[in-house]
Structures are given as C-alpha cells and as structure tokens.
Amino acid sequence: MIYTLEKGSYSSIAAKNFLNFIEKKEEIFYCPTIYNIFENLKKGYGVVPIENSIEGGVSLTMDLLLEYKPKILAEIIIPIHHNLIGFNKEKIKTILSHPQALAQCKNYIKKHNWKVLPVESTAKAVDIIAKKRDESLAAIGSEELAELYNLKILDSKIEDYKNNATRFILIGYDDLKLKPSKNYKGSIVLELKEDKPGALYRILKIFADREINLTRIESRPSKRLLGIYIFYIDFEYKNFDSSVIEELKKYTNYVINFGKFPSYNLIGEIK
Amino acid sequence: MIYTLEKGSYSSIAAKNFLNFIEKKEEIFYCPTIYNIFENLKKGYGVVPIENSIEGGVSLTMDLLLEYKPKILAEIIIPIHHNLIGFNKEKIKTILSHPQALAQCKNYIKKHNWKVLPVESTAKAVDIIAKKRDESLAAIGSEELAELYNLKILDSKIEDYKNNATRFILIGYDDLKLKPSKNYKGSIVLELKEDKPGALYRILKIFADREINLTRIESRPSKRLLGIYIFYIDFEYKNFDSSVIEELKKYTNYVINFGKFPSYNLIGEIK
Question: CB distance from A195 to chain B under 8 Å?
C-alpha cells in the first residue's frame, strides 16, 4: 500500500511513476494531507514532495521526516508543468491553487492581474471550481486533474521557469525491493552542538575530506531558539560509510540517518 | 516614509518598534503585500519579515531581496504571540490566518480539530471574520488586530512553541541614521560557481579562517536547475572586511552584499 496526496495531484503522479521501479505490485491510496500520509506509514509506504527547483524545500515534509523518522527508500525527480484549468480565460478574476503552485506561476498570474486564493491542494482547487461552475474562477493543476474533473485546459505550461521540477521521496519503515539506479544518494539531518564560528565548517570538512559530493544542504530552525539550526544534508553515496556518522556525532547534538536510496531522474523522460 | 504590511500585522508592530531606533521622525504607510513594500522602496523605506524561529525563512522576502537588492539598514527581533480572535470558542469550525501563523499554531489547531483556511495576511483574516460575523469562523492574529476590529480575544499565546520570534528587516536604497546597537551584523547572498565536492566548504573556510561567526545560513534554489543553490549568509560583523568579498568572488558566480547593520533584540523587552 502506497499512500500519497489526492488523485491528480503531482504527488499522485510521482507515486504512479514510482510503481515502475518497485518490484512488487503495490496499490495507491489517496490522502487529503501530507500529515495523513505520515500517519499511515504504520500500514504501508508514502510518497511526498520534498523539494521544488523554484520554491525550495517543502517545510511540512521536512518537519514530519524529523518527527516520524522513516527510511527514505527512493527519490524521483519529475518535471512539473502547470495548467490553467477552468471555463473561460477572458472572464477569470481569481485563481485557486496550492500555495506552491501559485508561487511557481507568480509572474504569469501577475501579468493577468488575477487575484489568488490559496487552498490546501491543487486537487481541492479544481474540485472547488468544478462544483461552483463560476466563470470568474480558475485553478492551477495537472493535466490529469483537468481530465478527472472534465474541465478545460485554458493554457498549459504556465510555470514561470522552464526548469520547474519537483523531487518526491518514497518513505516507510520496512524495506522495499526497488530496481537499481545509476545514482544512489544518502540523506541525514543533524543539529549543531554549538553556535560558534566554524561549527558548520567542521561538519562540511568531514564530507570534503572524503570527496563526498553534497547535493543539497538546507537549514531549518531548531524550533528552540532563533539562531540555532538543524541541517538537512543530501549527498551522493559514493565514498560514504559509517565513519562519517561517527565523526559527525562529535560536533552535533544528534544525527538522523535516513539511509541509502536509489535516485530516479525522469526529466527528459516524461513530458 | 516607511512601508510595511497592514495595520495590526506583526510587520506593522515591528515597524512601530523600529521608529524608536530611527533618529529622524518617519511616518508609517500600510501595504497589502510584501511585493508592494518592495515596489515602494523608490519612495522610502520598508519593513518586512525575514525569518521566524519556528517556520524558518520567509521565502518571498528572500526572493525579492535578490530582485530589488536594497541595503539592509537594521534588523529587529520580536517575540510573536498569537491570539485566537472571534466570537465564541465553542462554535468555531474554521480558522483563518496567514499560512505562517497557521503553521506556528499547528498543534493547537489540530487539538481542536478545526479546519484551516489560509489567507494573504493575519489582517485580512480578521477583516473577513469581522465582516462575515459568522460564529463558526475565527482568526489568528495580534492583540492589536483584535482591538482594531473590536473583536474578542478567545485565547492568547496559542503558538505551539514558547520561543516563537520573528526577525524583521528595515530596508531601503538610502542610508538612515539609526541608534547604535551592541551587535552589528552583515548579510550576503552568493551562488556557488560549481556543484563539486567541497564547494560550500571552501566558502565557509573563508569565514572560519577569520573567526567570523555565521548566525544563519540558508539555501534557496537558484531557479535554474534542481541541485544548484544560492546561499543566504548572515554573520556577526566583527572581523569582517572587504577581503572576504574578494575571496568569495573566486568561488562564486556572484556575491550580493546587503551591508552592515545594527541588530536590535526585543525578546524579554516587550511582552
């Protein structure tokens, strides 16, 4: 069982694509929120967005990873194309969508002088306009969502930047047999022991000394004090071994290791 | 002229507090969005939120700093206490507020099983419930907002974490005479030249060698490719000089220097 966001959401498209890399047959179940997906991890696996190329880290997923501490079993990178979904482009006054989708089409929306109304998900946005059938409303979402609700695509690829892509992760407490990949990555979270000059520098030196390539480093507040941060670090697994974690422990309050996982990049493979 | 968010917003409270540190008399003007504040910088100064101790960086402010490149003239850190504003706590079904405020009261809202409706600002949320006068609605916002709209505070200090604080910055193109502070900070943004092992490490070494204390490092996507990041780095100004920028240039595509500014910390000084 794989839990993900609502049918037609970009996460559900990611989940469908993950199925091609999972050896066993798995069924997809749809949840209204990222919370629900994490809560269902006792019963199965989850697919959630972790990072977008334009808007950055998905902070809710990042916070819940820390709280639920699942393994990351795989990641998949998918190009994201947004569509304007509605009835009549000339009559639009307000655009509904998830805040991330609205942010990724900021310039497009600004150009048209439309008002924005953030809602919980792209699926919810399309659901609202399908029910209201008010020509002054339109939604931003996937092609799949427009089909699902039998609504018109008034404009496609409306995202502001060409390289709009999102990285999704497959998470769970149990292992899962996956197809091999050319790239394997690792992911950890750590909290620095002290707020001193060079604290983060010492951490990065451990990676640099071993020529481990960091693919992402992102800070989040520790939620304890302004100025104390935790760091999410992703890296290519090559040259990594358990001695890294042992060394990191010297300079950190804690290290959470999400494990080694295959990375599948579908940019250029799906349109 | 100082532009900030709507009357009663946390930004407007920050702007009011900044007035105590500005030598000249300045008047405050209110804008509906962070965008508008940046657009008004040709005519005056701006006060915008940059970072919250729980939710992290305010990505819209971070993106616009890069686009408009103003100087950072000062920063102020203010404790944030959220209030439940409405009519009757027993009858509440839906909570309206800015997504950051909703996120900062996540556990409190979850405990009550209320639905959430994100809107553009805390001021907008209170405005909506004041107009609708529907007992099933409530808003999250400041004491000032409740007073302004003559609404009841049904519950106070409803934020999930005790150390909830937000850092606001005063920005502009022209200098402004400010009262001295015990702490001075600097802020830069840079894009790494290459995505190679140790690229960020080399950057941090420049600071570590000079014993410059970094107070914050946050990555944002470059908006060009997934995996290419820009870094926002704040530091204590002690030991910093222009040679740092010269050295940084060797390893980066660009460095933007927002300047040296006083830091005022009001935690413990205002309730």
Answer: yes
- Predicted TM-score (pTM) of the model is 0.81
- Supply the residues of B annotated as catalytic: 166, 168
Indicate which of B36, B204, B217 best probes the interface with A, i.e. most A CBs within 10 Å of its own CB: B204
- The helix (run of H) or strand (run of E) holding residue A230 is strand A229-236
Q: Is A162 on the interface with B (CB under 8 A)?
A: no
Residue ranges of domains in chain A, CATH in brackets = 2-80+164-172 (3.40.190.10), 83-156 (3.40.190.10), 184-261 (3.30.70.260)
The confidence score (pLDDT) of residue B29 equals: 97
Q: Which ranges of chain B would DSSP assign to H, the alpha helix? A: 10-19, 34-39, 59-68, 99-104, 106-112, 122-132, 143-148, 199-209, 242-251
* β-sheet bridge partners, residue B116: B95
Residue B45 pLDDT greater than 80, yes or no: yes
Residue A54: pLDDT above 70? yes
Residue with tokens 């194309």: A81
A114 at the B interface (CB within 8 A)?
A: no
| Model confidence at B196: pLDDT above 70 | no
